[in-house]
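[Discussion] Sanity-checking designs against the backbone

I'm trying to build intuition for which residues belong where. Below is a structure token string of 282 positions. I'd appreciate it if someone posts a full sequence so I can compare it with mine line by line.
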């Protein structure tokens, strides 16, 4: 049974989904943009017989607290700090990390700070290398260079319903197999008053991640966490070029490019669950 809980972290209510016995190996599931722990709603019960799964919503996402940009520093450093304190609040001392999209820079910050806590990595469409940050990223890179209102306005298109739907349907084999609940739910949260400002702050803060790539790569080389890469190869945001470099630095790695898009769990959830089960059991 999946349970739905909240825990207080730094005065914020952090919502999380949890299933499986805490005595089993733990998987900490870190979601992407613009979604929440909702993206793991099917993966969690698929693995809960053998694993303990915990999937939090970041501040400003899903069912967690959403302080304004004046009340909270929406940066990836700050989100990682909250997630670090979250793991401690719910008693996670050892875990495998499932990172996707925004979950990658948050999770890799956790891993480099506490390598002793990370038993394995599961990487799904999340970058730790410059490769793969292609044309989609050009307006974001312009915003990193110049945080002007003009450059911000160009990014607001990413917060519209059509863009949210596109993230789920671009690159998939069968768009009719993707539930519209995904983009309707995500869009509901995006359209809360003040949330656009939160997302623009995080678009800007994403520019802090590429300078940390060498540090994360050194973590891979030094600590050699066993790593499973399951990547939607048709993703226009995080292209498959960003998946291959993990093989340069990691010795124990399983690598799968899946014929789907950005939110690979929607179309390849059963396959990904099987890969995780075999990989972590081995």
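Best answer:
Here's mine. Compare freely.
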């Amino acid at each position: 049974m999946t349970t739905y809980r909240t825990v207080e972290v730094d005065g914020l209510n952090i919502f999380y989904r949890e299933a499986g016995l805490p005595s089993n190996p733990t998987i900490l599931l870190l979601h992407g943009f613009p979604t929440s722990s909702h993206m793991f709603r099917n993966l969690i019960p698929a693995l809960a017989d053998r694993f303990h799964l915990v999937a939090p919503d970041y501040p400003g996402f899903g069912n967690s607290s959403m302080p304004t940009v004046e009340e909270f520093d929406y940066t990836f450093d700050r989100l990682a700090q909250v997630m670090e304190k979250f793991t401690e609040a719910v008693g996670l001392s050892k875990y495998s990390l499932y990172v996707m999209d925004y979950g990658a820079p948050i999770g890799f910050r956790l891993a480099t700070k506490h390598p002793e806590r990370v038993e394995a990595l599961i990487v799904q469409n999340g970058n730790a290398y410059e490769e793969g940050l292609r044309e989609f990223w050009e307006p974001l890179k312009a915003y990193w260079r110049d945080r002007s209102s003009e450059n911000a306005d160009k990014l607001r298109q990413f917060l519209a319903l059509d863009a949210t739907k596109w993230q789920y349907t671009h690159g998939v084999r069968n768009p009719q197999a993707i539930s519209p609940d995904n983009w309707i739910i995500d869009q509901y949260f995006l359209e809360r008053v003040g949330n656009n400002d939160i997302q623009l702050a995080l678009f800007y803060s994403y520019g802090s991640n590429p300078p940390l790539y060498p540090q994360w790569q050194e973590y891979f080389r030094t600590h050699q966490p066993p790593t499973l890469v399951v990547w939607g190869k048709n993703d226009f945001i995080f292209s498959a070029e960003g998946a291959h470099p993990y093989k340069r630095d990691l010795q124990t790695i399983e690598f799968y490019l899946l014929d789907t898009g950005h939110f690979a769990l929607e179309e390849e959830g059963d396959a990904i669950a099987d890969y995780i089960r075999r990989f972590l059991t081995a």
